[in-house]
Design brief:
This protein has 258 residues and is mainly alpha-helical. It is built from nine helices and no strands.
Length: 258
């Protein structure tokens, strides 16, 4: 329980950030790949939707322009809600600033798993509610990881991870020759391990998510939501206990005997 509390607590260390990042990378890979099987779109990264908006704006297909705008807006709103929750917790001196968005993500994933099959009707953005819901969830998670790691860790999309991994591999393969020690190029092996693990867990999560959604369906998301609940509840329960102690009436001194 103590370890779980540290993962989503306000006190951050590189080790804690990495552990939480690994868990969330697996989660994002599972939602992204598995979600594609049920909604037909990858909802964890927005580059494709920005390109979709530009392409169909030029082609005059306003229906698909609206679809892209809807997904982009949903993802952005998810990130904005994370910022609101985190700053509300900070202003009120709570320790659950990172836990609150993850709790909301877990609850929305439970909703998706339990009634996802009934959410396929179209929205004014010409995309199913499920697509907007998954994009909102990924916006929540992306903002949490960005904020807690000062943008050093990414879990919902691998473009930046692959770029950073390639940079470190290039430094690792660089031949220094007779260069003096102070000017030699050295790879950061800790960052290499970080990026490789994030990429690997995102991929494994994708395989697990795709297999789960293919053979089980929407309900497969429930174990993923349960993990997020386990991560988010300890700091929240700690805040509730502190609030309870603050609201307890102070004991009054016994009156003297006449």
């Amino acid at each position: 329980m103590r370890r779980l509390r540290h993962l989503t607590g306000l006190h951050r260390t590189p080790s804690i950030n990495r552990t939480l990042g690994f868990l969330l990378a697996f989660n994002a890979g599972a939602i992204n790949a598995g979600g594609f099987l049920v909604v037909g779109m990858y909802t964890s990264h927005m580059s494709g939707f920005v390109s979709m908006l530009a392409d169909h704006l030029v082609l005059g297909n306003l229906l698909l322009v609206g679809s892209a705008c809807g997904v982009l807006l949903s993802f952005t709103c998810g990130a904005a809600v994370t910022a609101v929750l985190f700053n509300w917790a900070r202003v009120h001196h709570l320790r659950s600033g990172y836990a609150l968005p993850l709790l909301l993500e877990a609850l929305l994933m439970l909703l998706f798993g339990l009634i996802g099959g009934t959410l396929n009707h179209q929205t004014p953005f010409a995309v199913p509610v499920t697509v907007l819901l998954l994009a909102f969830i990924m916006g929540l998670q992306n903002a949490v990881v960005t904020k807690m790691s000062a943008a050093q860790i990414r879990t919902t999309h691998m473009t930046g991870v692959l770029t950073d991994l390639g940079i470190e591999l290039g430094k690792l393969l660089y031949w220094n020759g007779q260069a003096p020690p102070q000017s030699q190029v050295r790879a950061n092996r800790a960052r290499l391990r970080l990026f490789t693990t994030l990429l690997g867990l995102f991929t494994v999560g994708g395989v697990v998510g795709a297999a789960g959604f293919k053979h089980i369906g929407f309900i497969w998301v429930l174990p993923l939501a349960t993990v997020l609940l386990a991560l988010s509840l300890p700091p929240l329960l700690g805040d509730l206990r502190r609030l309870g102690r603050m609201l307890e009436p102070e004991p009054t001194a016994p009156k003297g005997l006449d």
